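# nightly structure sweep
# worker-07 picked up a monomer target from the shared queue
# config: single-sequence mode, recycle default, output format = structure tokens
# input follows
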Amino acid sequence: MHKSAWVRAGVACAVFALGGCGGSGDNLEQTGPRLVADIAVPNVRAGVNFSFDIGTTNGSHYYFTDRNNAALDVVDIPTKTFVKAIKGSGSLAFAGLGPGPSSTAGPDGATPVGNLVYAGDVNSVKVVDPAAGAVLASIPVSTTGVRADEGCLDATHGIFMISSPEEPTPFATFISTSTQTVIARVTFTDAAGKPTAGLEACVYDAASDNFYVNVDGSTANPHGELVKLPGTAIRAIPAGATQNYTTLAGVAMYPEGNCDPTGLALGPGTDIAVGCREATTGAPLLMQIFNRANGALVASLNAGGGDQLEYDAATNRYYNAASRWTASGNASANGNCTTASPCKPVLTIVDAGSRGVVARLNTGNNAHSVAIDPATGLIFVPYSSATSPAGCPDCAANGFINGGVSVFVAR
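# output follows
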């Protein structure tokens, strides 16, 4: 479908569930969160399973990782146009999609580090210079053929953390952003001596000097725990050494209940929001808000089923890319979207003050990644084509047919 037709079809009924469809369908006259544009991506079209991962904004550009094109894709925010796909070559090439599972594909996470972007890839972190349109370096973190996934930055001390969730024993690598070398590693073997089930998103809180990371599961907390890693303890690890997380001074593990956590975002005050993507059939899809100082649960909302979760201070709202939301608000069979157990992907918007759902906007197939530009209020959500992967029967009717990047406005 041409862009103009796509926007006419998608904008008219983008907002649902809380406020109804309503409005004239004239995009220029509407206010509030809504769909405003669609951006095509090279080699992504109807019938193609578009494999993408984490997105981020920095300056006037939106970046997201694109496994189909083995690239970090660049979008110009003011014009809402695709600029380029940055690919490396030789030893600096991204792994791409490949024939195997997502654990052996890349790039994955994307984090701005000054004017650069660090992107997790198989066995490594790639350092990308968007201005030059080039991959500058590859920082090895493993040799096992699985990915370094999502990362976060301590800009105060120049330390980048990235998780390797599919290793036999999951671990996090800490990299100096000044030397672009590995300075320490933290392994995740729980107090019972078992490797944790994996690692998800991480964030760094400069106010308290703590890294936080979602752990998929441990013996004590089989459906997830939020782990606090004190920055002082990380910096105390001898250069090049490895230490287990349970032995770090001041470490804390906060139970997340039946969560199966994914996204993570620092909210106002001491709030930290956890996106849950429950794999228990019929379990409520939750977004949980904790007090990050003591781990107390302060709110639990039926607003989960997502992957990337972001907080925008300008609107004081959270944005959850809930690709596995369902009509009932409960997890589909084993948490997966299938033809027999379909999903209804949405962008869930939560007010951080009231800790309540503001709106749910229809999104495209497998739309699990979200990034917000604080200057313009534009929200970028990649999506796959309506028919691939299976499990989104409403995607075509909602206007999300070809795959690409849908653009919403927050205000």
